[in-house]
Backbone:
C-alpha cells in the first residue's frame, strides 16, 4: 500500500546477516498486526537491511491477482525483496488449511536459510502464524493427526456413534477416554465428537496425545531454559498496533483510495468469474476463500444490479452502500485481529515462554511511523541478530507498556471459570474466553439473525452485540474450532 514507506528514511548502517549466524542461530522474524498497520512495509524495510526474504501469511494475499481487494504491495513497493506465498493460488481454489500452510512455510523457511538469508513471516491471518509457531495447535484442532487416513465423513461412516446424540457420544467417550469426557460440557457435541474422532482415527486417547505434547513441550523447555529457541529457530516477534480510532479513520480512507484505484473493476472480475462457474453448473462453496474477501461480498448487490441494467441514482445508492459496508467490515476485521491476539496468541506465547519476545510497535500515528515502528523495529532486529540483550517489551514505548499489560491481563482473565448460557443458541460456556468466543462466532451470529427474523428477540437482548465481528479470511469451520479448542 506504500502508505508507510513514503516516510521511510535511509537509516545509516545496515549490518548484513552472515551465513554463519543463520546457520548457528536459525533466526526468524514474525510480524503480527491488524490490517492497515503497515506490516508489509516493515517487513520490506527489515528485509532490505538484514538480508531477508518475506513469507506471506495472509490467506487473501495468497490469491493471484486482485491487488486492490487484497491490499498487496506493488512490485515497486516490494523493492526486489523475494516474497513467497504471495499471489500463488488461483481464484477458484480453497484457502489453505493450516497444515498445508505450515508445511509449505516450513519448507520455504529452510530454503531461505540455505541461502544464508533471514526469513520474515508477515501475518494477517493469525491462525496461520499461530499454527506454525505453536506446535500441537493443529493436533488440538483437528481429528486424526497420525492414523489420519480417514477423514471426518469416512470416520462417521465407519463409526456410526459419531452421528448420534451428544449424550450417546459422551457415554462412549466416557468409556474410551474418561479424562476427555470430564472436560467437555454435556451439550458440546462438537468437542465430544472431536475427542472420539481422535480416538477412532488414531487408536489413541486424545487425553494421552495432549499429555504427551505437554510433557514434550515441558522437557523441551527444561532442557533449553531461556534461549527462546523454538522448533522454528530463534524467534523475534513484532505486533504492529494502532489505536482503534486512528486505525478506523485510516482504514476508511484506505477504502476510499481503493475505490479510486479500481476496486469496483476487481470486484466485477471476481463476480464474472463466479457467474461463469455457476453457469457451468459447478457448485461453489461461497463460505470460504476469495468469495469471503472484504470488498467482494459487500459490492455483490451493486454488481448484480449493474448486470441487470440498473442505472442512475438507484445504482449509485447501491455503490454507496457497498462502500459503507466495506468500511464497516474492514474495521470489524481489524478489531477481530486484535481480539485473536488477546484470546489466542498471547496465551500461546505465554505457554511457550515467548511473551518477552513480543514487541509491540505503535503504528497509531503515521507521521511517527519512522521513529515508532521503523527505527525501533530495525534496532530491535539488529540487537536480536547480534545476540545482544533485548529490552523488556514494555519499555519500548508508553503504548507498548499500556497495551501489553492490558492485553495480557485480559488474556489471563479469559481462563476465568464462569457459567454463562446463550439463550439464543441454548449453549452453556464454561470460561469467560469460551463465552467471548461463542458470542463472536458465526454460528451465534447466524442464530441471532435467524431469531431476529422470526422476531423472537429484540435487538437489545442479543449478548454483547458490539463484540460481534466478521471473520472474512477464515474458513467457517475454523472460527468455531480454532477459537474454542482445549
Ligand atoms: Zn449463541
Residues:
Amino acid at each position: 500500500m506504500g502508505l508507510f514507506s513514503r516516510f521511510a528514511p535511509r537509516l545509516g548502517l545496515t549490518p548484513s546477516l552472515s551465513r554463519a549466524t543463520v546457520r548457528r542461530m536459525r533466526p526468524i522474524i514474525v510480524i503480527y498486526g491488524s490490517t492497515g498497520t503497515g506490516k508489509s512495509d516493515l517487513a520490506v524495510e527489515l528485509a532490505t537491511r538484514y538480508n531477508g526474504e518475506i513469507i506471506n501469511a495472509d490467506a487473501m494475499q495468497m490469491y493471484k491477482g486482485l491487488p486492490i481487494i487484497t491490499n498487496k504491495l506493488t512490485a515497486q513497493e516490494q523493492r526486489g525483496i523475494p516474497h513467497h506465498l504471495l499471489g500463488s493460488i488461483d481464484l477458484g481454489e480453497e484457502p489453505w488449511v493450516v497444515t498445508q500452510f505450515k508445511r509449505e512455510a516450513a519448507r520455504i523457511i529452510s530454503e531461505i536459510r540455505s541461502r544464508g538469508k533471514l526469513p520474515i513471516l508477515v501475518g494477517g491471518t493469525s491462525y496461520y502464524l499461530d499454527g506454525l509457531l505453536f506446535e500441537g495447535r493443529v493436533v488440538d484442532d483437528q481429528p486424526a493427526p497420525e492414523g489420519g487416513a480417514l477423514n471426518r465423513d469416512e470416520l462417521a461412516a465407519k463409526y456410526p456413534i459419531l452421528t448420534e446424540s451428544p449424550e450417546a457420544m459422551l457415554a462412549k467417550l466416557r468409556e474410551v477416554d474418561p479424562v476427555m469426557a470430564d472436560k467437555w460440557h454435556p451439550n458440546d457435541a462438537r468437542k465430544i465428537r472431536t475427542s472420539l474422532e481422535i480416538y477412532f482415527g488414531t487408536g489413541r486417547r486424545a487425553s494421552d496425545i495432549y499429555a504427551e505434547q505437554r510433557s514434550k513441550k515441558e522437557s523441551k523447555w527444561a532442557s533449553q531454559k531461556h534461549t527462546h529457541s523454538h522448533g522454528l529457530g530463534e524467534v523475534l516477534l513484532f505486533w504492529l498496533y494502532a489505536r482503534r480510532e486512528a486505525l478506523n479513520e485510516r482504514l476508511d480512507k484506505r477504502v476510499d483510495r481503493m475505490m479510486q484505484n479500481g476496486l469496483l473493476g476487481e470486484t466485477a472480475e471476481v463476480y464474472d468469474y463466479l457467474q461463469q462457474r455457476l453457469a457451468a453448473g459447478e457448485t461453489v462453496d461461497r463460505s470460504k476463500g476469495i468469495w469471503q474477501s472484504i470488498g467482494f461480498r459487500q459490492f455483490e448487490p451493486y454488481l448484480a444490479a449493474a448486470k441487470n441494467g440498473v442505472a442512475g441514482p438507484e445504482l449509485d445508492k447501491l455503490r454507496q452502500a457497498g462502500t459503507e459496508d466495506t468500511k464497516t467490515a474492514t474495521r470489524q476485521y481489524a478489531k477481530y485481529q486484535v481480539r485473536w491476539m488477546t484470546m489466542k496468541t498471547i496465551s500461546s506465547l505465554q505457554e511457550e515462554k515467548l511473551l518477552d519476545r513480543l514487541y509491540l510497535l505503535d503504528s497509531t500515528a503515521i507521521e511517527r511511523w519512522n521513529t515508532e515502528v521503523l527505527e525501533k523495529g530495525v534496532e530491535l532486529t539488529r540487537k536480536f541478530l547480534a545476540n545482544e540483550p533485548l529490552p523488556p517489551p514494555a519499555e519500548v514505548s508508553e503504548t507498548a507498556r499500556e497495551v501489553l499489560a492490558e492485553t495480557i491481563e485480559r488474556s489471563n482473565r479469559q481462563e476465568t471459570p464462569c457459567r454463562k448460557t446463550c439463550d439464543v443458541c441454548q449453549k452453556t460456556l464454561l470460561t469467560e474466553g469460551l463465552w467471548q468466543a461463542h458470542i463472536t462466532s458465526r454460528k451465534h451470529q447466524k442464530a441471532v439473525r435467524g431469531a431476529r427474523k422470526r422476531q423472537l428477540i429484540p435487538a437489545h437482548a442479543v449478548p454483547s452485540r458490539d463484540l460481534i465481528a466478521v471473520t472474512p479470511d477464515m474458513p467457517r469451520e475454523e472460527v468455531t474450532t480454532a477459537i474454542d479448542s482445549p
